[in-house]
Amino acid sequence: MAVAFSPDGKLLASASGDKKIKLWDVSSGAALKTLEGYSRSVNAVAFSPDGKLLASALDDEIVKLWDASSGVALHTFEGHWSMVYTIAFSPDGKLLASASRDKTVKLWDTVSGALLQTLEGHSSWVSAIAFSPDGKLLASASDETVKLWDAGSGVALQTLEGHSGHVNAVAFSPDGKLLASASDETVKLWDASSGAALQTLEDNSDSVT
């Protein structure tokens, strides 16, 4: 299952094992649209920063892009060969990143639907992705590592190592200077520019997500 608010907070997208996405009016609770046409359940949903687009990742290799207002399907992104776990829009909404069990991250043009980059180098499934606030960097988490990529060129810039378990989540600070990664009962803080490890936050009773 997955849920996501639109940036203005007026819409909520929800997805479940019934192979459908529903768009809800948050203030009234009314169901506005049902997006159908899936053969598998939906793993993730995300609105673009301007709220005009909705992306969805399926429990297979497919990513779809929708007009959030009309519910019309705009693009179907095909290229992964295994389950897509998570998706993320760049801050300007021009790129959509998708992370898969096939150990890759793909970058798509949200206007043309073209595949722009395939980021390879992880040794296991990619569990989390995040763009920096300026859109120049993309962080991806897999196995016990985090990789930092140039979002424009697709070049791998840094591999951040230090976790002892699978990394479940990544997030940039609002100013883009720090990157946090969560795993194995710890959170690590990194310098996003140099890749240097700054702090390890512990004392969690279970895995951090």
From TrEMBL:
The protein's name: WD40 repeat-like protein
Recorded superkingdom: Eukaryota
Pfam families in the record: WD40
PROSITE patterns: WD_REPEATS_1, WD_REPEATS_2, WD_REPEATS_REGION
SMART domains reported in the protein's UniProt record: WD40 (SM00320)
Gene3D superfamilies: YVTN repeat-like/Quinoprotein amine dehydrogenase
InterPro entries xrefs: WD40/YVTN_repeat-like_dom_sf, WD40_PAC1, WD40_repeat_CS, WD40_repeat_dom_sf, WD40_rpt, WD_LIS1/nudF_dynein_reg
Organism, as annotated: Hyaloscypha variabilis (strain UAMH 11265 / GT02V1 / F) (Meliniomyces variabilis)
Taxon lineage: Eukaryota, Fungi, Dikarya, Ascomycota, Pezizomycotina
